[in-house]
Structures are given as structure tokens and as C-alpha cells.
Amino acid sequence: MVSLNRISEICGVSLGTVSKALSGKPGVGDATRERILSVAREHNYRPNRLVHAIQRGRSMMVGVTCSQFDDEFAGNIVAGMFEALYQDHYDAMVIQWERSVQDGVRALSNLAGRRVDGILMFPPAAYPEGAYLDELRSFPNPIVVVDQTWPGCGYDLVGSQDVEGAFAATEHLIELGHRRIAHLGFLHGSTGRDRLKGFQDAMIRHGVAIHEKWLRDLQSYPSEEPYALTRELLSGPDRPTAIMAFNDEVALQALAAAADLGLSVPGDLSITGFGDLSVVRHVRPQITTVTQDPREIGRRAAKLLIKRIEEKHENQAAPAAMQDRLPARLLVRQSTGPCPTAT
Amino acid sequence: MVSLNRISEICGVSLGTVSKALSGKPGVGDATRERILSVAREHNYRPNRLVHAIQRGRSMMVGVTCSQFDDEFAGNIVAGMFEALYQDHYDAMVIQWERSVQDGVRALSNLAGRRVDGILMFPPAAYPEGAYLDELRSFPNPIVVVDQTWPGCGYDLVGSQDVEGAFAATEHLIELGHRRIAHLGFLHGSTGRDRLKGFQDAMIRHGVAIHEKWLRDLQSYPSEEPYALTRELLSGPDRPTAIMAFNDEVALQALAAAADLGLSVPGDLSITGFGDLSVVRHVRPQITTVTQDPREIGRRAAKLLIKRIEEKHENQAAPAAMQDRLPARLLVRQSTGPCPTAT
DNA sequence: CTGAAAGCGCTTACAG
DNA sequence: CTGAAAGCGCTTACAG
Question: For the HTH lacI-type domain, which residue ranges apply (chains A, B) (predicted)?
Fold first, then answer.
């Protein structure tokens, strides 16, 4: 790539003149400007944005850490982030979280070394600890956490109303007459714990007994574990009539397990998911679920981060961390139905 | 973030000495080095990698353009890329392709402005044209295209053996006795055209007639169109006994359409997918499909790009563009079975 | 209108 | 062992 210097040589003018001409600043003769512009075009000159970043002390680059892209939810969050970042002329440097946790210090210090103006963090269930967390805390610019948080996190969060969504799903099952409701949860993460809380709240509110034996906690996820746990749950003599699953993918596996056991859904068993992935519409029965708006979560997180960056640049005092949780609404489809009459 | 300059002030030594001390170069007294290191640590100093990039003429950053992250296939490709990039100490700047095509010149010129050392391109079906393609051609560094290509592309490609995979799937249906085989294709993209070719090759090889009326071309994808097209295909008096779908998501919708029409799969209808997404294992019947290895595709693409970058840096002549296509194997599951006896 | 100089944050020969 | 200077690719006051 040609440099300004090279162009100034070619045109026989000084560096400063070329700079002014190319950035459209006044104070350059028309003929000179024309000549410079045409030479620049001919050589395909692009101003080096790394230099801008150094000079201004702002890279206009944001770090995005994400544990996995391979599902629709994460993908849409990231897509929403990109949308908002692009609008405000920020670029995104992406690092994969698993890696960054494993080899955390290097990945994070990379981000600091590149002088990113902030970090959008989509954390995995295994939240950061130890040296990694120290490195994170030493990062000098704003951080916004997305979807999931952890004890003592202290950063801004944009996520979903997990408690409320789970409450609505549970209430729906109760209103259908179900009393024997299992919960297939994922308690390693804050969203899973929130959803369990929504479940418990609804059960208590409606005076329905919670049976420990029907409460499960996924240990490794994603995996085939939800399928196995569901089979186990449904194989005993004393089985639940409804299962509230941590999310759509878990619900999908629960559905498969029910099918393999010859149980009809929703005839024998009702199942709810969480997230409204497109796949739950393409499956029969279509799964009753709770909507989330990952795209909007991503957008809002990026906008909030940009706001924090601006605030910091104007030397405003850092405001207290906030939580922005988007509504999660119940979407009734085909996988839930009236409780089968007890035998 | 403190600068070297600031640290040299604090320590009362020159810039050069600080630089040498922090980068572990010889020629600094032990006491001085200790003092500098401790001050740097205390102030959380991170060398500014943007400066390195300018000085070396290498940013150690690669641009990744991707149309969508919201599916497992794309997500794993990107994950594979990150894995290989990280190993060789490259970072990734990611831009979303839809955006970059729409507003193409800005996004690409961004990449050039950031001086990325190369581009990993995961193109959408709507391949680049016009001003965008011009901008792409003017990009001075290596480019590797992934999964899908376009007429006159001219860049290295890492993808799958789409023709062979589709051939195997079709042959499988033929061997099950099917003769009335529909193809739900997506001919806007090269992968779709390749899969159609594999289909045609197998049909011709086995002397099975291809019926135009059972050949469909999805216009908008992703969408609900596959569902609608399948219903149409299956509703006439003269319906196929097997459908070969462009990919797993299309197959999933075909399965839903069949279920809604009361057709049993594979009793009345056989369906094949392509891609081996995890969801096709969690659905009943599990879908017969063709495996792809997106993670390895991503890894290889990144490695190839890095190789090209090194070659270029050693002033080697640019080698001819190559295609690296990974095996796509047939995976028989539950959605394909013997052709029902004609009535 | 044009140029020379300082500076952003570094590294790397080269003096002392 | 330590420092001063040049240079990477720019921008921005400030002279002329």
C-alpha cells in the first residue's frame, strides 16, 4: 500500500499538502489538489487507520468476546452488535471466549494491546475467574456484558427477563392443570438460575408442590445430556406430566426422548422451551416457548457500550452499572396441552 | 493507558532503555530493568500493537467477512478460523457480509484502512458484483474464499465436495428403489449448483429419468419457502417418493410439511439433507444427511491464508489459486427407506 | 497556497 | 550500560 510520503514524492509536494488535499481540508490549490487526488486514486491509496488510532487515542474498534457462534441465539446477538457498531463507525475485533478463558490473559491482553475502546462480552456459563478476571479488571475501558452475568460482575448487562419469562411458562403449565412439573435446568449460568427462580416463584404463587426428584441440573451443555436426563425422568413409574426446559435445544432433545419412549406430546406430556429459535417452529409438534430478542439485545449492548465510551472520552464520571433486560413473552404452540387425567 | 514515554519519565531513563528492558533485549543493567519492569507492571502497561503494525508493515490481523453467524455451519467455520488464527498469533476483525455487500465499498475499504494482512471470505449466495468486486480486486493482500465461490472468482477456495456428497445421497435413494425423486435446490449459490450436478450425475449414471416438475429452486433463503414448496410438491396427484434437499434446514422444513400432510417419513416419503447439523439428530425421524466438516474448513482456510501471507512477505510469486474440498460423506439415518410399492 | 516541524508510541541501529 | 536520533505513517498548528 502506498503511503502519503510516497504520494508526496510522486506529486512533488510536501507531506502536509497531500494530507490536507486528501482529507478535504482547505488551503490547497485546485490544480494541486486534483493532481494529488488522481495520483492517490491511481495508486489505490487508503489512509492508514492505525495511525489515526494512535494519534487520537481512540481505535474506533471494539472487542467482542463470544463463547460460541454456532447457535442462532449467539449469532443474532453478534449480528445485532455489528449492526449498531457499524452505524457508529466502530469496527469489531472478535475473540472466542472458550479460548480466552483457557488462555485468558493472552487473549485479553491482546485486546488491550490493540487498544480497543471497549469490550462487548458474551460470557459462557463458566464465568471468568482468577488471573483472567484480574486481567479483565485491569482493562481500562468500558465493558458491557450480554445475556448472562456472574456473582460480583459489576459491569453493565443487557439481557432478557429470564425470571419473568420462566414464570409465564410455568404458569401456563399450571393453568393447563399440570401439577407434576419437572424442570430441566442449567444452573451453572445465571440465566439458568434466573429461570429456575421464575419456575419456583410460579409454583409457590400457585401453591403447587415442587418435587426435588423432578428438578435436574445439566452438567455438560451443549451435549446429549438433556436427552438422557429426559429419558430417565420419564422412565420411572412416577413421571411428571410436564417438563419445563432450560431452553429450546434442551426442549428439542426432551421431545426426541418422549418420542422414543412412545409418549405423545402434548397428549401424555407437555414441554416448554425458551428462546424461540426458528427450529422449534419447524418441528412437529411445534414447541411452546418464550421469546427472546437476541438481535435487539446485541444492538442495545453495542449502543450502551458506545455511550459509555463517549462518556469516558468526555471525562464524565463512570455511572453505576445498569441492567437492561428485554421482555421475554410466552408463545404457546403445540407442545403444551391439558394435563392428562390421572390414572 | 500509560505510554513508554511516561514510564521513561517515571523511571528517569531514556525511552530506548525502557523499550529494551520491556522487550527483554540485552543491554540494560539489572537494577534498571527491575525498576522499569515493576513500574510497568504497576501501571498495567501493554505495548501498543498498533505501533508494531505500522512499523513492521504487518498488522497480524485478518479480516473475516461472514454473511451470517446464526447457524451452526457458519458458526463452526468461523470457530475453526479463530482456532487456527489464534495459534499463529493473528487476530480477527469481523465484518458482516450482507452489510458489506450493501454498503460494500465502505466495509471493504475499512479492512484495507486497518491494514489487515489478508481476508477470509465466507460469501453469501448473492456473490459480489460491481463496485464491491472492484474494491475487492484492489485489495492488495491475499484472500481465501470459503464454502462457496462464484463465476470468475479467482481466489483460493476451501469448501466441501458438494458434487460427490450429493451424488452419494442420490445414489442412496436410487438404491432404495426410488425413481420419482425431487430435488429442492438453491441454485443462486455455487454449493447448490454443485449439489444439483451431483444429483443429475447420479440419476444419469443409474439411468433414472429426471422430471423437470420435481426440480425446484428456492428463491429466498433462509425463509419458510422450503415448507411451502414441499407442500406443493406433495399435494399433487403425482408426487415424488423421495426428496433430496439442498441442506438440513430445508430437509427439516420438508419433514414438517410431510408431517402436516399426514405422510409418514420414511414410509411414504424419503428425505435427505446436507450438512449434518446437530438438530437433525434431535428430530424424529433423524434425518439422513451428508456430513460436512465446517470446523476443519475454517481451520484450513485460515492456515492457507496465513501461508499466502507468509509467501507474500517473502516476496514469492503468487501461486495459482487452488481449491481444497473436504470429503462429504453420506450418513444414513431414519428419514430414508425403501420406495413404497407403487399403487 | 505551500512547506517545515512537532508529535502520536514505539523500535532499532548507532554513538558515547 | 545508557542516550540521542531516525523512522514507521500520518495530522495539525505554525511559518513563510
Answer: 2-56
